[in-house]
């Protein structure tokens, strides 16, 4: 086994990037499968919807929140991997060093500088793949937090049935059922995560199939009115992501019309602001959250504060190239380049520095669906992708990230054993062991 280390040079940048996402399957439906979508322009890829495959593992969109890292007993001031005082590996987060503590009411820029590496609590509250319990969620939260991750993204489906029940009283109105036991579990998970010092938590509206397909603006508006009220007493390390991957569910998984997304986002934004002027709000593109979608949709910030709100952040998903990250191919010996990783990030940073007025950017999902093909991870080419993504590209550009870990095709953490299934966690931190010395080793073929 050869250990490969990645030396980092950190630079200060504003924020964000990601490419397209995707997966297979129908949300919340066991045994359903879907297909990958067409490639987006600008190098971003797209795919199908998240869901479970016939074996119960997710084919879904990857990605996950990421955060910079505290080692036990203190923050890591640099980047890449290092040892904490308790022997744990810590991580620097972004250009300014992830994991730095922030005040009670951080601006979006301050939050982005502290979020660093993060992870998604994938396939739990938007799916039936994993038990929807605090015990199951907390084991994963603890494991990632111990390795220096300081962002947790929690995908939540509200208006579609998950395991037979809705989180709303009526999918055509968006009124949240405050007596639903699943909501109580979600609140307990959010509260548990917020007890972790410097951990940022993001909740969203995730699958919402009919809402997206029919542009149900009043439903999204009422949904966020209620969510903002329910979580109004939580601290400002809790962030709201308005609507995940707002594609239509039709024959081509087409994009939501840009005007519809702007209107719907604006209505939800206004409801959140009526409750809390300092809650950080995230918004993205109109199909798969590809990097090129935000510049095409958000030609102004009129619906989200008009450029005068310090508490907004944009987000995108990065599965570029899709032929490597998500199309569930037969081999993983693709000759991807650094440009595949950095290009979508630069697309988002260019928008953020112009139309976005310096707004920070967050990569809400990224990863490789390796377990759709392999039962054991031995491919160095996949390890290299995880090693470089945050440590060499996103972090130095000042972009916090959240890796998609669904416990299935994008697996890093195993909910059955409550332990890491492979060494991708080390790779994300900037250094991990290889099988042999070749990037395209036998494990990739």
Describe the structure.
Strands 6-7-8-9-10-11-12 form a seven-stranded parallel sheet. The protein is an alpha/beta fold. The protein has one domain: TIM Barrel, CATH 3.20.20.80. Helix 2 (134-146) packs parallel to helix 3, helix 5 (217-230) runs parallel beside helix 6 (258-275) and helix 9 (338-353) runs parallel beside helix 10. It is built from eleven helices and 16 strands. The longest helix has 18 residues, at 258-275.
Descriptors:
disordered N terminus; TIM Barrel; alpha/beta; 445 residues
Spatial separation of the terminal alpha carbons: 18 Å
Uncertain runs with pLDDT below 50, 5 residues or more? 2-97
| Main beta-sheet strand count, sense and barrel state | 7 strands, parallel
Q: Which architecture name does CATH use?
A: Alpha-Beta Barrel
Order of helices and strands: EEEEEHEHEHEHHEHEHEHHEHEEEHE
CATH homologous superfamily annotation = Glycosidases
Helix content: 25-40%
Number of structural domains:
1
* Average pLDDT, all residues: 84
Class derived from helix and strand content: alpha/beta
* Total number of strands: 16
Q: Count of helices?
A: 11
Which CATH first-tier class would you pick? Alpha Beta
Instruction: Give the overall shape.
Output: globular
The side-by-side strand order for the widest beta sheet comes to 6-7-8-9-10-11-12
The rounded Rg comes to 19 Å
**Proportion of β residues?**
5-15%
């Amino acid at each position: 086994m050869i250990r490969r280390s990645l030396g980092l040079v950190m630079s200060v940048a504003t924020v964000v990037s990601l490419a397209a996402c995707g997966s297979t399957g129908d949300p919340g439906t066991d045994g359903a499968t879907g297909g990958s979508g067409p490639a987006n322009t600008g190098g971003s890829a797209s795919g199908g919807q998240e869901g479970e495959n016939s074996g119960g593992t997710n084919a879904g969109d990857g990605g996950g929140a990421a955060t910079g890292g505290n080692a036990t007993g203190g923050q890591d001031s640099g980047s890449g991997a290092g040892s904490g005082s308790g022997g744990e590996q810590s991580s620097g987060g972004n250009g300014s060093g992830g994991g730095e503590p922030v005040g009670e009411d951080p601006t979006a820029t301050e939050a982005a500088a502290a979020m660093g590496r993060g992870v998604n609590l994938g396939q739990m509250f938007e799916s039936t793949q994993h038990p929807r319990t605090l015990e199951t969620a907390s084991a994963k939260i603890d494991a990632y937090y111990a390795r220096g991750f300081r962002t947790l993204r929690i995908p939540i489906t509200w208006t579609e049935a998950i395991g037979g029940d809705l989180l709303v009283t009526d999918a055509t109105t968006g009124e949240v059922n405050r007596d639903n036991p699943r909501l109580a579990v979600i609140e307990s998970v959010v509260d548990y995560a917020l007890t972790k010092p410097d951990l940022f938590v993001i909740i969203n509206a995730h699958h919402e199939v009919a809402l997206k397909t029919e542009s149900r603006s009043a439903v999204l508006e009422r949904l966020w009115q209620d969510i903002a009220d329910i979580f109004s007493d939580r601290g400002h390390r809790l962030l709201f992501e308005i609507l995940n991957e707002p594609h239509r569910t039709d024959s081509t998984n087409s994009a939501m019309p840009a005007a519809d997304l702007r209107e719907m986002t604006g209505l939800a934004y206004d409801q959140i602001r009526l409750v809390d002027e300092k809650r950080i709000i995230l918004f993205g593109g109109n199909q798969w959250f590809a990097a090129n979608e935000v510049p095409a949709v958000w030609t102004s910030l009129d619906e989200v504060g008009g450029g005068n709100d310090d508490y907004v952040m944009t987000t995108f998903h990065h599965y570029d190239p899709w032929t490597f990250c998500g199309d569930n191919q037969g081999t993983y010996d693709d000759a991807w380049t650094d440009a595949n990783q950095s290009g979508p990030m630069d697309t988002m940073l260019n928008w953020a520095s112009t139309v976005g007025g310096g707004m920070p950017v967050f990569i809400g999902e990224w990863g490789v669906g390796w377990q759709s093909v392999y039962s054991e991870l031995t491919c160095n080419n996949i390890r290299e992708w995880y090693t470089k993504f945050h440590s060499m590209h996103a972090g130095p550009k000042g972009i916090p990230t959240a890796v998609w870990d669904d416990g299935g095709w994008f697996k890093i953490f195993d909910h059955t054993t409550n332990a890491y299934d492979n060494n991708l966690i080390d790779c994300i931190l900037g250094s991990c062991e290889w099988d042999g010395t070749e990037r395209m080793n036998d494990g990739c073929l």
